[in-house]
Amino acid sequence: MGIPLCELTHAYQGLKDEIDAAMQAVAADGRYILGPNVAALEREIAEYCQCEYAVGVNSGTDALYLALKALGIGPGDEVITTPFTFIATTEAIGLVGATPVFVDIDPHTHNIDPRLIEAAITPRTKAILPVHLYGRPCDMGTIAGIAIRYGLRVVEDCAQAIGATCHGRMVGSFGSAGCLSFFPSKNLGCFGDGGMVVTNDATVYESVEMLRRHGGKVKYHHSRLGLNSRLDELQAAILRVKLKHLDNWNGARRQAAVRYNQLLSDTQGVATPTLDDARETDDIRSVYHQYTIRVHDREHLTSQLSAAGIGYGVYYPCPLHLQEVHQSLGHGEGSFPEAELAAKQCLSLPMFPELTPTQQQEVADCVRQAVAASAAECAA
Ligand SMILES: *Cc1c(COP(=O)(O)O)cnc(C)c1O
Fold it and tell me: Which of 80, 155, 162, 255 is the most exposed, fewest CB within 10 Å of its CB?
């Protein structure tokens, strides 16, 4: 039958009647742009993320761009971030005219290494942009502490991590702004593009709210250069139905991660995610957007997975400091060795809330056999 990397239609099938009714209600209502569902979803997500305010926008990429713009970050400013993330993170920094300054990752978390941040701060540094990669929260206590000491802003990229907590608090609520994506494959996905900025800062809220609709408070009067970046009413209606199930889905992902770790823990040559975050007692609670292992011979493993009809993902095969678009920053091989090694070894296995123990067993068996075969080849 095969096992996909992620499965997007299960959630719809399970909630079909409710989602269909929500979509039809929007169609019949006629308030297609910034209607009542967007406003209601903003209140619901703000509350969910333990923030005062939320603004629905076009995508997670726009959420990042508009948050930085709202904070007045622009040409001449530096923003500290990780090289091991999706391009949208640095795209947003570059598009406001600022410069991304990379800090290498901690290989155990795949997130920005907080111990290396202070050394990257210069007089031009305006903000730190941590990314909660694979749904695992960054060490926000340490990052927020550094930001306070140096008078820096914090903008969180929560695109993969809605519902994750650090020190018992929701990601997105630590900094000046948290940026969410509702891209279909994210933990809370809609049927197209969508995103949101959450914040406890009234000024950031007002700015993003204005910028998303052409930079004006009053229609046809524009005080700043904004853009068209509104969350669709139709997507908001779908998301309101799905939001009620997010905690269950994230719980199922966490269970699946614990199960994978049990199945793979004694497998030589496979590094599983640190189990700490699979324990309720721990200070961080990951939502496993991806379940990502590290292996030495990734090529052999991916060919075996493909042959067995098992989906996989490589997030990400090339770190951002080695991307052509960032050539002008002057980095090369060796600039951020942990990110470079992770890019060579990381492999994400099938992960979605409906993944069954039997499917996981099949995936684990395939991984074990493939890794044992490459080890035997090495020894020979
Ligand atoms: C998906 C993603 C984004 C961008 O979100 P879009 O809604 O696709 O624009 C940004 N950052 C990270 C880490 C992501 O995974």
Answer: 255
